[in-house]
Amino acid sequence: MIQNYIEKILRAKVYDVAQETPLDFARTLSEKLNNHVYLKREDLQPVFSFKLRGAYNKMSGLTPEQMAKGVIAASAGNHAQGVALAAKKMGIKALIVMPKTTPDIKIKAVRAYGAKIVLHGDSYDDAYVHAMEIAVEKAMTFIHPYDDPDVIAGQGTVGMEILRQHNAAIHAIFVPVGGGGLLAGIAAYVKFVRPDIKIIAVEPDDADCLNQAMLAGQRVTLAQVGLFADGVAVKQIGEETFRLARLYVDQVITVSTDEICAAIKDIFDDTRSVAEPAGALAVAGLKKYVEQQDLSHATLVAIDSGANMNFDRLRYVAERTLVGEHREILLAVTIPEMPGSFLRFCKMLGKRSITEFNYRYFDSHEAQVFVGITSSGVETDRQQLIDQLSADGFAVTDMTCSELAKDHIRYMVGGHAPFELHERVYSLQFPERPGALLKFLMSLGSQWNISLFHYRNHGAAFGKVLIGIQLADKDCKAFVHCLDVLGLSYREETANPAYRMFAGGVSKAVP
Which of 348, 316, 317 has its CA nearest to residue 331? Predict the structure, then answer.
């Protein structure tokens, strides 16, 4: 019953270690959106994330026997730090199982709180299975990151604080979703006290386990999840968290990587702090909601849920922010290969600036260029520009939403292969740890030839690779089986326009 959760939240013992974080007015974002936007600053917690609340609340209820045997958790970051700090405060031993792909900064942070660490597997799922095995073997108490009533209640204190800090009207509270613990706790409390306030869940569009569960009417397991917002990269929503979400959540919004990057910049502009991708998720959803609803003069709250950002990722975030803010348009444009064509093309752009221009001579009649162009920030501006160029005789392909173009093609030089290679092209995700690439290449052996390879470090747990393999049709099934055996996340890109226009082989040699 909901009353049980309200009692648990009111009695939650989180403030021995957690802080009551401020609800800050985001002046710049409010002016931009013509609404009153507030940020709940969970990034200011001692572990730079809300996760400390649920972990400590769960652990504070352990029996003396359980505390004597210690606790164990599986996590790649924020939950691990929360459990480690809570264990240090309580004077009990903690063991954290983390994927081998976990960045050093997070491993060092957990060790700094005195917890022991076991590195196992390449993903959270691998770490979770191993942690459960150790928990049984050593009779340790497993501290679940989200699907536990006491953890949910601890996270629910965020909602309690929001209503205490702002007792005037609130149109909606936007909450990031991974496993659903924060969402379930906030939704249960807020809907009991202020049922008029909308609770809106926000997920990455490539890791939308709650959205898919809502559509199906039951929990589903995603085949794979995007890893940019690693703090919410969960394949299946929790059982108890989903039950509460179905009762108390008004809407689920999904956002793109570019929109998350733009939200990181929005938070920085107002607070001069750098949110991690999962931490900026709620702001991205808030912005999208305002645009969809054409909303103005409303009070909106977004949970800034964490700031455990790897410094190496900032370059990638900055690059993707312009597209997320609708301030950069990426196009493939075909222009005549003759003097004056580029000048004519630039005149068509008027006062717009070109952010990049990629071109290599290939054909004596036509040139295909990859171009970045500044935009006004209005989403409709992109289509207007495309229409103008098309009307003037330029063949245009919109690459603004092409992940392949943004992750790989814009950084590749050299142009097309000089002849038909009979290659198949795949985008892959490699775990960022020593030996991963060598393991992959050794698994391929010498039976297939690599004809294209592009990799760029994004500072994340998994790197993105574009690879071309020369394959006869009869060998395609065997190659795909090899990828499946390795357990890599992959997608075939052979028919992708970005590849075919700028990197594919041609049917005859170019003189």
Answer: 348
**Single-letter residue type at 250:** D
Which tokens sit at 444?
A: 């391929």
How far apart, in whole angstroms, are the C-alpha atoms of residue 301 and residue 318? 25
Instruction: Write the single-letter amino acid at 80.
Output: A
Q: Work out the burial of residue 447: count CB atoms within 10 Å of its CB; fewer than 13 is exposed, 13-18 middle, 19 or more buried.
A: exposed
Q: How many CB atoms lie within 10 A of CB 18?
A: 27
CATH number for region 51-142: 3.40.50.1100
User: For the chain, what is the radius of gyration of the CA atoms?
Assistant: 25
Characterize the bridge pairing of strands 462-470 and 423-431: antiparallel
Quote the tokens at residue 347.
Answer: 């005149």
For residue 28, give both structure tokens.
């710049």
Flag whether pLDDT at 229 surpasses 70: yes
Q: Which CATH class is domain 416-502?
A: alpha beta
CATH architecture of the domain covering 326-401: 2-Layer Sandwich (3.30)
Q: Is 38 helix (H, G, I), strand (E, B) or coil?
A: strand
Going 160 to 163 to 164 to 166, the CA torsion angle's sign is positive
CB neighbours of residue 175 within 10 Å = 30
- Round to whole Å and give the CA distance between 233 and 216: 19
How many DSSP H helices and E strands does the chain contain?
Answer: 20, 18
Catalytic residue among 8, 40, 51, 58: 51
138 in catalytic set: no
Complete DSSP assignment for 68-106: HH-EEEE-SSHHHHHHHHHHHHHT--EEEEE-TTS-HHH
Q: What is the pLDDT of residue 130?
A: 95
Q: How do beta strands 141-142 and 251-255 pair?
A: unpaired
CB 465 within 8 A of CB 453: yes
Number of alpha carbons in the 13 Å side-chain half-sphere of residue 71: 31
AA letter at 21: T
Domain ranges of the chain: 2-48+149-318, 51-142, 326-401, 416-502
Q: Which of 49, 123, 305, 402 is catalytic?
A: 305
Q: To which residue do tokens 């536990």 refer?
A: 148
Q: Mean pLDDT check: name the lowest of 144-148, 412-416, 451-455.
A: 412-416
pLDDT attached to residue 437 = 65
> Does the annotation count 288 as an active-site position?
no
* Contact (Cβ atoms closer than 8 angstroms) between residue 303 and residue 40: yes
Provide the CATH number for the domain formed by 2-48+149-318 in this structure. Answer: 3.40.50.1100
| Distance in angstroms (rounded) separating the CA atoms of residues 85 and 89 | 6
Write out pLDDT tens, residues 110-126: 999 999 999 988 777 78
2-48+149-318 shares its CATH topology with 51-142: yes
